[in-house]
Amino acid sequence: MTPSENATPFSDYGGDGPIVVAVHGHFGSARTFAGLAEALAGSVRLIALDQRGHGHARKGVEYACSDYVDDVAAFLEARELAPAIVLGHSMGGVVAYTLAARRPELVRALIVEEGQALVDANTLDTRGWPKRAPSLRALGEAIEAQGMPDASYFLQSAVRYPDGWGLTFDPEEMLRSQELLVGDHWADWSAVKQPTLLLHGTESFVLPTEQAREMARRPGTRYREFSGCGHWIHDDDPAGVAEAIGNWVRDIENDAPGSGAVEVNS
């Protein structure tokens, strides 16, 4: 749904229960959360955004973390959803906790899946990625030919254009966005006062387990490790993530969020 040219597009997946506003990571879109929304439909109403440069959102804009944060803030205010429970994956997790730190009146509670406090410079070089391909399969093969072992995540952001299949993000813009996110975000993570659920996959190539556990030491953080899962935990273990989020939201509603010990899904 696209209310206006400059508004943030979003997908309201419906469902019963409290609203959770979901913010995807680099190369994603609102569609990233479709499977999770279905798994959560009995306990949560998920509203997922297309962030700038992604999905159906505007392109050719600025991509600093603060720009992404401003977009989410404007969305929450325009739709009178604040204070909201905000879920962020990867870069979206950094955006979510930065929003909570800098605009605390807008965020009631946080769910951070694989969002780093220290973002290293190991960016994905997408400059040679294809603009168009004759079929969805060919697009996936062309992406994998650039060194990606599995293109399935990126193909969630693929659509059919008049001249063939392509991605809804510009690869070169996404490289710039990744570069702008690199840095030390510990100050914002440490400044968050809202109760937080931190989800980490032990096989992640993005968030090291040592860093995740250090982040979990922040007061008010409940930490859940998913053994054998990678960076996209919601794809690797959708039932486990849905259970963790459903329980967390229920505890938030009952004012009993808790924190502390490591919980492991094996």
Automatic annotation (TrEMBL):
<dbReference type="InterPro" id="IPR029058">
    <property type="entry name" value="AB_hydrolase_fold"/>
</dbReference>
<dbReference type="InterPro" id="IPR050266">
    <property type="entry name" value="AB_hydrolase_sf"/>
</dbReference>
<dbReference type="Pfam" id="PF12697">
    <property type="entry name" value="Abhydrolase_6"/>
</dbReference>
<dbReference type="GO" id="GO:0016787">
    <property type="term" value="F:hydrolase activity"/>
</dbReference>
<dbReference type="InterPro" id="IPR000073">
    <property type="entry name" value="AB_hydrolase_1"/>
</dbReference>
<keyword id="KW-0378">Hydrolase</keyword>
<protein>
    <submittedName>
        <fullName>Alpha/beta hydrolase</fullName>
    </submittedName>
</protein>
<feature type="domain" description="AB hydrolase-1">
    <location>
        <begin position="20"/>
        <end position="244"/>
    </location>
</feature>
<dbReference type="GO" id="GO:0016020">
    <property type="term" value="C:membrane"/>
</dbReference>
